[in-house]
């Protein structure tokens, strides 16, 4: 057996990968194998995961709802009466556009500012036009994560 003079690095003072302290001079590889015990959180896990189609309850990241063009056109009108708490300087995106995009993203199953921003960036030009996004250089621009976060924090709930 090989004797290691330096202790292998590990966390919390435990020698990793099967090393045991042999003497004051070093560590020896441990001959006994490590066992890992796993407890299934659900009894039918193997059956669920081996099916050709996974039940939608267990799927992550799928849309909860698909918005139609008419819905995309209608959502911004619901927010027109809300006061915009932002400064008037450098306001590119209208408040109703940001709130409509956040609402649409949540309807489609996105969570958090990053999820809303990713959903907004994934919209095509036609969808961005329906949400009345900022138009510059012949393209509709979706609001960034920072703008969405900053705006949603400032708007007072009714």
Describe the structure.
- The strands form 2 sheets. The chain has a two-stranded antiparallel sheet with strand order 1-2.
- The protein is of the alpha+beta class.
- It starts with 18 loop residues before the first strand and ends with a helix.
- It has a domain of 86 residues.
Instruction: Assign the structural class, choosing from mainly alpha, mainly beta, alpha/beta, alpha+beta, or little secondary structure.
Output: alpha+beta
Share in helix: 25-40%
Could you tell me the strand content as a percent range?
5-15%
Q: Helix segment count?
A: 6
State the low-pLDDT regions, or none.
Answer: 10-15
Described by the principal axes of the CA atoms, the overall outline is elongated
**Biggest beta sheet attributes:** 2 strands, antiparallel
InterPro entries: YbfD_N
Organism: Nitrosomonas supralitoralis
Protein name: DDE transposase family protein
Domain H repeat-associated protein N-terminal: 78-157
